[in-house]
Amino acid sequence: MSNPLKLLKANASNPKLWILIGVGVAGVVILAETRRRGRNGKVLQGEDFGAFIQRFELRPFPQPPPPAARQPLAGLTFAVKDVFDVKDYVTGFGNPDWKRTHDVAEKTDEVVTLLLKNGAACVGKTVMDELGFGITGDNKQYGTPTNPKLSSFVPGGSSSGSAVAVAGELVDFALGTDTVGCIRIPASFCGILAFRPSHGVVPMNRVLSNSPSLDTVGWFARDPSTLHRVGHVLLKLNSVEPRRMRRFVFADDLFQLSKVPLQKTVHVVEKAIENLSGYQSPKHMNFGQYLASNVPSLKGFLDQSSKLQKGITILKALSSVMILLQRCEFKINHEEWIKSVKPKLGSNASEDVLAAIKTSYDDIKTLYKVRMETRIALKSLLKDDGILVIPTVADPPPKFSTKKGIASEFRDRTFALSSISSMSGCCEVAVPLGKQDDCPISVSLITFHGADKFLLDTVLDIFSALQEQVGIASNNLLPFADTNGDMDASELLKEKGNAAFKGRQWNKAVSYYADAIKLNGTNATYYCNRAAAYLELGCFQQAEDDCSKAILLDKKNVKAYLRRGTARESLLLYKEAIKDFKHALVLEPQNKVANLAEKRLQKLIS
C-alpha cells in the first residue's frame, strides 16, 4: 500500500483531515470551471462550440399507451433560439440588458410545447445576434458560436447558435427565426438543411419579434427525414397528399452572383432530377428581369444613378425595401425600450439598432404593397408545380474578426438573394451540396406561399440523388485545358465573332470566340472580346473570368480591366471593381469611362 493511502487509513477518523481533503477537491473543481470559462464569465467553446446561452432539460410528454402510434419525434433532442418563451426562464433576445429588464415567462411557447407533445426533448437556449440584427452570428456579450465546419469563419446569423448546435451534432434539430435570411444564411455557412416556412403559417405568439411582417419560425436539421418530420408536426400537415408534377426553374442571373462553378450547383440539381419520375424538364430564366416587369411598386426604390443591369438593380431595390421595412417595424415595437434602457450592444448590433431608431419613413403602406406584389409575382411564376432554384448565399462565410465588420458589398449580395422569400413570404429550403475550397455549398429551393408540404416532400424525394451527384461532380471537376491551333483559323473565327457582336447576336459571338480560344488559348483579345459578349448576355461571372485570363496574358489590356470592373460592379463586388477602374486609369489617365465609374463606386460605398 502506498504511503498516502497508509496515512489516510491511519487518520480516517480525524475530521480535520476530511476538511482538508474537501477543500482540495473544491479547489480542483473551481480550477476546472475557471479553465472552462473565459474572461467575464463566458463559457469557452471547446465542448459545445459556444452554441448555448442556457442549458436545461424539458422532457417530452409521456407516450400514450397502445394502441396509440409512437410519437413522431420520440427520441429526438432540440434547442431553441433565445427568442422563444420557456416557462420560468427569461427570454433574453441575445442581450443581457434585455434579460435583466424582463420577467420570466409565464408559459412555454406553443411551438415548443407542440414539439414536446410529439416526443422531442428540449435541452437549452442558443446564442443569437443581439435583438435579431445581424447575419454573421456575432455576439459580443455571450461570444460568437464556433462554426463546426470552419472554425475560423463565422457561423452566420442571426440564428447562429441553433445552426451550430445542429451542425456540431449537439442536438437532432433546432428552432430559429428568419427575418432577412437568419436561418438560411447560417444553414449555408454550416453545411446543414434549414426550412423557412411560408410567412404566418407557424404561430409566433410567444416568440420575440424583430419585424413581424418578415419574421417566421424555422428549423435546422442534418438530414431530410428529421427536417420533414419536424415540418409535419409544426405545420400540422396531412400525411397523405396526391403526388404532383414538379417543375424546376433556375434563376440563371442569380447564379451569376456566386463564384461556385455551375457544375457544382445547377448541374448537380439538373442531373439529380433527370432520372426521377414526376419531374418536368427544367427551365431557365432571368429572375431579376421578371421581377422588374411584375413588381411595379419597386420602381420608386431604384437607384437611378446605378449602371447595373436592370435585373440586378431590381434585386438591390427589393432588398432595400426589406431592410427599410425591418427597421420601421423594429422601431415601432422596440424604440421605447431602446431609449429608456440604453442597452450595451456589440458594434455591429449597435449600428443596426441605431439605424432602425433613426429611420423616418412615412409611407410604410408602399412597403407592404411591394411585399404583396412580390408574393403575387412568385405565385404567377411558379403556379402549382414550380420550384425556383437559387444560390442560398453568394459568398463563402467571412473570416471571424472582432475588429472589422462585414463589407457592404457582402451584405448587398446576400440580401439580394434572401429578400426573395422574405419579401414574398414564400417558403424556402436551404440544401447543402458539398464543398468548394473547403467551404460548404448550398442552394435554395423556393415555392409559392402555402406550399410547404410540397417543398418538404420535394427535399425528401431528391436529397439522396443530390448527394450522389455531389460526389460525381467533386470527382469529375477538371480544369479546362486550352489547345493551341492554327493562328489564321483562330483569327478568322475572331472576325466572325466581331461581326456577330456588331449584329447584336451575342450568343453566336460567344460561340465564335470560344472556337478561336480552342485553337489559340494564348490570345488575350479573344478572351476580352468574349467577355464583352458575356456582359451583353448578363453572364457576369463568365465575363469576369475571361477578363482575368486576358489580364494574365496581357497586363496592359485596358479593355479587360474596364470590362472586368463592369462585371464586378454588376456582381456587387464594388471594392474589386474600383481597383479595376483605377488600374485602367493608370494605363490610360484620360479614360472617361474608368474615371466616371471609379467616382460613382466610391460614392456608393461611402
| Count of helical regions | 22
Main structural class:
alpha/beta
Oligomeric state of shown chains: single chain
Report the count of strand segments.
11
| Beta-strand residue fraction | 5-15%
Helix content: 40-55%
Mean pLDDT: 89
Unreliable stretches:
1-9, 17-45, 478-486
Q: Report how far the terminal alpha carbons are from each other.
A: 76 Å
Arrangement of strands in the largest sheet? 1-3-2-4-6-5-10-11-9-7-8
Q: How large, in whole angstroms, is the Cα Rg?
A: 28 Å
Shape: globular
InterPro entries: Amidase_dom, AS_sf, TPR-like_helical_dom_sf, TPR_rpt
Keywords: TPR repeat
Protein name: Outer envelope protein 64, mitochondrial
Organism: Cucumis melo
Secondary-structure map:
Elements: H1 3-10, H2 15-36, E1 52-58, E2 77-81, H3 96-100, H4 110-117, E3 121-126, H5 160-167, E4 173-178, H6 184-190, E5 193-196, E6 216-221, H7 224-234, E7 247-251, H8 252-255, H9 266-274, E8 283-285, H10 287-294, H11 310-341, H12 347-358, H13 364-382, E9 386-391, H14 408-424, E10 427-436, E11 439-447, H15 452-476, H16 487-502, H17 506-519, H18 524-537, H19 540-553, H20 558-570, H21 574-587, H22 592-605
Parallel strand pairs: 2-3, 2-4, 7-8, 7-9
Antiparallel strand pairs: 1-3, 4-6, 5-6, 5-10, 9-11, 10-11
Helix pairs in contact: 7-15, 9-15, 10-11, 11-12, 11-13, 11-14, 16-17, 16-18, 17-18, 18-19, 18-20, 19-20, 20-21, 21-22
